[in-house]
Design brief:
Blueprint: H1 2-35, H2 54-66
Length: 67
């Protein structure tokens, strides 16, 4: 029936708007919280980067020679 189609469409549109609003609200909340979180290992390291141990380089070189 025509009246039910209009009511269904109106309800579907309102639910989609509510879902979009909730998604934006959740994303905003997560962003705000993540700004305050300190994750170890995600920041830039100062000084020179860690060197690869010579033993590991020798191992990789031997692997490459074997191929």
């Amino acid at each position: 029936p025509e009246g039910q189609k209009n009511a269904f469409l109106a309800q579907a549109i309102l639910q989609a708007e509510d879902a979009g609003y909730l998604e934006r609200l959740i994303r905003q909340t997560i962003r705000e919280e993540l700004r305050e979180v300190q994750c170890p290992g995600t920041g830039k390291t100062e000084g020179r980067p860690e060197e690869i141990p010579a033993q590991m380089l020798d191992f990789l070189s031997n692997m490459e020679d074997g191929m």
